[in-house]
Amino acid sequence: MTKLTPVLSELKHHAPFTFFGAFTGIVCMLLFRNFSNEANLRLFQVFHPTHVILSAMVTSALYLLYKKKTSVIKLLIIGYFGSVGIATLSDCILPFLGENLLCVSIPTHSHESHETSEVNEPENHEIASVNEHEHGEHKIHLHLGFIEEWYIVNPAAFLGILIAYFLPRTKFPHAGHVLISTWASSFHVLMNTHRELSPQILIGMLFVLFISVWLPCCISDIVFPMLFVKPGEYKTHHHH
User: Fold this and answer.
1) How far apart are CA 57 and CA 63, in angstroms?
2) In this structure, what are the phi and psi dihedrals at residue 169, rounded to the nearest 5 degrees?
3) Model pLDDT for residues 196-224, shown as the tens digit of each residue
């Protein structure tokens, strides 16, 4: 419990700002809801690598600020997995799960017509399933940036580590990374959204965006790098 206390304190401290970030994500969704999937993909390809850079900066900087001595290889490994791994969880995997729970990939009119056909013409169910399969534009897609844009995301992580190596600061990158992560998550959702953004969906998405950013970002920036610093390895003087 002694080790968990500072982590829980940080999660509590970051909750209000993360909620504000989630609200800005909802605003993004409303502003860009009529954009094409391709346009939303392009915006995701901007915000996700930016998130990775900032995350790598914070993770690597915090590790360097507390660790007395470390090798470049170890720094690269911690910085890479602490940024790309957790940014993928935050921007891709958790939003994808939220999209599935809220069924945003199924257009409202398709959902209604599907219910009607089940009541009036049960025999059409098989035909409707085939048509949905053929029209893949409504199929939800988990977009993994480090695989699909490997040439952007992976170099972004190493760039963030390099910046932290020469300028180990954490405050501004952490605040920016919370907002950027929220926006990246929002555009991942928009890429798969094919129905009207009703108040119910927006409330659900507010919760999804909050969880997608709150836990992963705090783990990435605070918990993850400290797992590799033993009590006897702390620097005598450090600053956040």
Assistant:
1) 10
2) -125, 150
3) 899 999 999 999 999 998 888 777 666 77
Residue 214 burial by Cβ neighbours in a 10 Å radius (0-12, 13-18, 19+): buried
Looking up tokens 């290889």 gives 73
What does pTM read for this prediction? 0.79
What is d(CA 78, CA 58) in angstroms, rounded to the nearest whole number?
A: 11
Tens-digit pLDDT profile for residues 100-140: 999 887 765 544 444 444 445 554 444 344 344 434 445 67
CB distance 181 to 103 below 8 Å:
no
What b/e readout covers 150-177, taking b as 16+ CB neighbours within 10 angstroms? eeebbebbbebbbbbbeebbbeebbebb
3-state secondary structure 112-171: HHHHHHHHHCHHHHHHHHHHHHHCHHHCCCCCCHHHHCHHHHHHHHHHHHHHHHHCCCCH
Quote the radius of gyration of the chain (alpha carbons, Å): 21
Instruction: Give the torsion sign (CA, 112, 114, 118, 123).
Output: positive
Q: Rounded to whole angstroms, how far apart are CA atoms 124 and 126?
A: 6
* Alpha-carbon dihedral angle through residues 6, 177, 143, 79, given to the nearest 10 degrees: -70
Q: What would the two tokens of residue 18 be?
A: 């993360």
pLDDT, position 15: 86
Tally the C-alpha atoms within 13 A of residue 230's C-alpha that lie toward its C-beta. Answer: 4
Rounded Cα distance between 125 and 114, Å, is 8
Q: Which helix (H) or strand (E) holds 10?
A: helix 4-31
